[in-house]
Hints:
Elements: E1 5-9, H1 13-26, E2 36-41, H2 43-52, E3 60-64, H3 80-86, E4 88-92, E5 95-101, E6 106-111, E7 114-119, E8 125-131, E9 134-142, E10 144-148, H4 156-159, E11 171-177, E12 187-191, E13 196-201, E14 208-212, E15 215-217, E16 220-227, E17 233-237, H5 243-250
Parallel strand pairs: 1-2, 2-3, 3-17
Antiparallel strand pairs: 4-17, 5-6, 5-16, 7-10, 7-14, 8-9, 8-13, 10-11, 11-12, 13-16, 14-15
Amino acid sequence: MPLNIAFAASAAPVAQTARAALVARYGDADLEKADVIVALGGDGFMLQTLHGSQHLNAPVYGMNRGTIGFLMNEYGETDLEARLEAAEEALLNPLTMTARDAEGEEHKALAINEVSLLRAGAQAAKLRITVDGRLRMDELVCDGALVATPAGSTAYNYSAHGPVLPIGSDVLALTAVAAFRPRRWRGALLPKMAHVRFDVLEADKRPVMAEADSRSIRNVVSVEIQSEPAVVHRILFDPGHGLEERLISEQFT
């Protein structure tokens, strides 16, 4: 029985052209009735598609028509149904971010890759870090800090010299961005279900913004982060090219 495939594409012309070619060949199912969603673009669009379809049961299979394709498979127009049938599935829980801004307003968002705090002014940020209700660092002076999932550990976290995490490791990476004091502090590995809280010190003088997969909240005074087990994202990869293999390979390039 043929698969009901729904196609989604970024605004990039190359992605839109690919979508038109695939729809002409395989049709285009309604998202609500699709067996699988094929996302055409880069990793940013893949994250957007995952967030937008998290209420659906259909897994998402990405094909690279963008700049970065860590979460994507190679693009190809032939034998797509066979590739989908043979694909391996990875299950991901996102992080939930609860950020409170200087006006006292609370903002919630989910992040598949990471939640990051970044200085938003000329001076370095000052952050206090609490884990599971216990104060772990009374003052971190830095350009920022982030909490990354295993799936996001090769993204911003890796660029900030954080560790690459195996996909089944059930840990999170807490990584500093350009730490000034303690100067050599690179971060920590935490259990997946840890509750992390950042409090922004001297927030008026040293403004900080928070981001959850590129959703930005400005002038935050506190940010709380923890895994969200109630939300499960299903991602499909070609055999032998799943997230576990990619995470290992990334460390040898």
